[in-house]
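We examine the record.

___
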Amino acid sequence: MNSMLAEPGPLQRFVAELLTAEGGLVEAIEPEGLEAVVPPSLQQALGVPELCRLGFGATLPEAAARVGIESDWLERCGRAMGERGRWSRRVLDASAGLGDAEAALGHELALDNATFRLVAARPAWTRYPVFDLRYTAISDEKRDGVLRCIVNLATGALPDAVLERITPWLDDAEIPGSSPETGAVPPDDWVLPPDWERARVLDVLRRAVPPRLALALAPFERGLRRRLARDQDRLHAYHNDLYREAMRRAAGAVESDPMFQREQLRISAIGREYRAKLDDLGHKYALRVALEWIRTLELVMPVVRLEVLVRRRKAERVVWLDWNRLARRLEPPPCEDSFAPERPRLACDDAVHLVSAGGLAACLGCGKAYCRACHHGGCPKCGRA
């Protein structure tokens, strides 16, 4: 490639690497373009002839087709990629030790209605599948983005804070101390947690994704509500003026007067139109969300596994929590009802399930609080779901 050419952008680099990986011939041209011989395996997927020119900037090379994220080129590249890049694995070697395990546990574990005690702390290895899900939210405006959800296959935790700490490394080509090879494994004397069954993974994601997606879309939804309230106020003010004027005219006429009858009809028509316009606003600002799986990155890394005894009244239970060495954070126990991210956790009386506040909320039917992890079907007293 000519050293005098401008540095290519990320989309141009990606398309060039995709063509080259499939055996195509690529040469950079100015301004911000590629001249390519496209292999047959990519011609149909990308919708281009064997010999083509592609442009990626505001100014196109002569006879070049425009390529940009605002067009359908992302979908074309997705078709060309197929399942490649949908799954990858990295083994991390985070060597930082825990130090005072008991202090870390007391500082980071939040149980509002139970006590706990550290039983043991030992080094271990675990696996974290990181699921990338693309969401598209459409209302009067459109918002899309990527939601990441991480699961610890050893403890079942969904450590959002850990994910937040290590996300900058996930987006880089290199993670400190990582090995990107699919076949890389930790030392032979370490045991990794086994794969979960597909049904279990889907069940966790089904319950864990909605509250996290709601948090991601919260600013967008607040904007929707503000615009909806503004339009509702304008609509109400306009029809209220019409209504008041019609009522004023009707009040000045007797019931037998034709004007009175006309104003009564006008008042009814104003009410019908107002309700119809409100329905139109409801449809305009209705939020529709689509979710699509993009890829799964499996992280394999050493952790410090804490054995913790949790006591609630006369019941007790042992749980295992991991201290993530790379993020230097203790992973909170998962909500065993909804996998909601909110903290703190509460322990139920019977089985010492650790749940979020909603998991021990009062029944809407009889008012009795009960554990949703113990009683998935509904309230044990009145049966209401």
The helical segments are 10-21, 40-46, 73-81, 101-108, 160-170, 198-251, 258-284. The chain has three domains: 10-81, 89-212+291-324, 214-289. The mean pLDDT is 87.
